[in-house]
Design goal:
- This protein has about 525 residues and is of the alpha+beta class.
- It folds into three domains: about 160 residues, no CATH class; about 90 residues, no CATH class; about 230 residues, ATP-grasp fold, B domain (D-amino Acid Aminotransferase, Chain A, domain 1).
- It is about 35% helix and about 25% strand.
- The strands form three sheets. Strands 9, 10, 11, 12, 13, 14, 15, 16, 17, 18 and 19 form an eleven-stranded antiparallel β-sheet that branches.
- A hairpin with a 5-residue loop joins strand 10 and strand 11.
- It is globular.
- The C terminus is likely disordered.
Amino acid sequence: MPAEINDAFGQLQKKLLPIWTSIREDDNFEHTSVIIPSLSVDQEELSKVQGASFYEERLMFALIRLRNPNARLIYVTSQPVHPDVIDYYLQLLIGVPAAHAKRRLKMLCVLDASTRPLTEKVLERPRVLERLRGWINEHGPAYLTCYNTTMLERNLALELEIPLNGVDPVLLPLGTKSGSRQAFASAKVPCPAGFEDLHTEQEIVTALCELGKLRPDIHRAVVKINEGFSGEGNGVFTYPDSKTDPQAIRQSLQQLEWPSDSETTASFLRKFDQMGGIVEEMIEAEEVRSPSVQMRIFPDGKAVLVSSHEQVLGGNTGQVYLGCQFPAREEYRLMIQEQAARIGEVLSKKGVLGRFGIDFLLTRKEDGTWQSHALEINLRMGGTTPPYHALEFLTSGELSPQTGIYHAPTGQEKFYSATDNLKSPAYRGLLPEDLFDISIRNKIHYQPDSGTGVLFYMIGALSQYGKIGMTCIGNSPEQANELFRRTVAILDRETEVGSHDHGVLEPLFDNRINME
């Protein structure tokens, strides 16, 4: 990359710290937030996620920034967002008339439903860029927020001449599967035995043989593509009787198990060769948990805790993110938060900026304590980001870093159960206005007086795919989970169906029951 482009981006990024400082010090600081919720990830992997195009709606909670009466927000999407959906979020802004917030909101749709990253669509439309520049120049300094950052987002920041509120794409290797293992080693945080920076089938075979020597009792391993996400890009390998015989290992490699039914060994190895990846042991125990920790590195370099969650995983191999519960279990919450903080310090020293998540695997030892294994770093927003944003959006509270518990302004502790994968064929055809009518009539919508209720998101996916996301907020874990159950039961009743497969529900309920 030409040095002058790097210099230009570096100069842009210097503008972010004074903007961030002013926002934190002045609730009325005049500025503009530009939201480009592009999923700039491997499109072949993304195509396996049903209704992925509507994931652009997951950042609608950024409308919380309109609480500042002098803030303006520009939100860009590939397809139109239903007007009722916009009104749904605006009327939930505490202390701000919806009409006032709406005047400071610009929604821009590029009317392009193709399966390409939104950022790419914006960059190839000169008039869209010109329109965005015009809006940006109307009011105060501005910055760019995206779902994840790549060179596309870097280029867009340069085109708009505003700083990017996220990690510089040149640092993205730190968040690959290989980079994650290296960061864990630097932070002295335990992770599964394995090998990174692999590329070829032969290197995979060699690594599996070496792992068989290190762990003679190993039964399964995971082969992961560096840039896979949400469990996609992971293949589960079952060892043959001879755990160190290259020929037997090579034959068994053809029988990898996949999270989805669309993957093949040939396509997987092709992508592995292109992107690289890792091999690591698949840790198995009688009692296993899959928590995660969200962190954020501010423009001043400080790494802070955002949240912890119990993740609910499913799919064919049990590695696909389905939902979460906030916060993580008390008995190991502080342990994984402390480990996440050490990892955050490592990443901060390398220049990482913005939100990121760390996935852990916890196993209970014979003495009843928990053993932690860090699995991967996601240098982007993830599945647990929208639910936590929903909590912030609705309550205006804050998290205690000492306990990992979230408190509303009244001091009330808050909890939630959430999913972005509630789905049923019976839900297809429901329009946003139908969903809101059902929610209001059954009194499950969020109630500011009690600080409890349901907030829906990814609403645009409901009619076509019968799929929706929701965050069920309660004043106790039990209340949040009961609200989750009740909401599903209401949607089933309103669509005149009996019990059916929602994909996420039973794993989520089982997880909560085990936690209790």
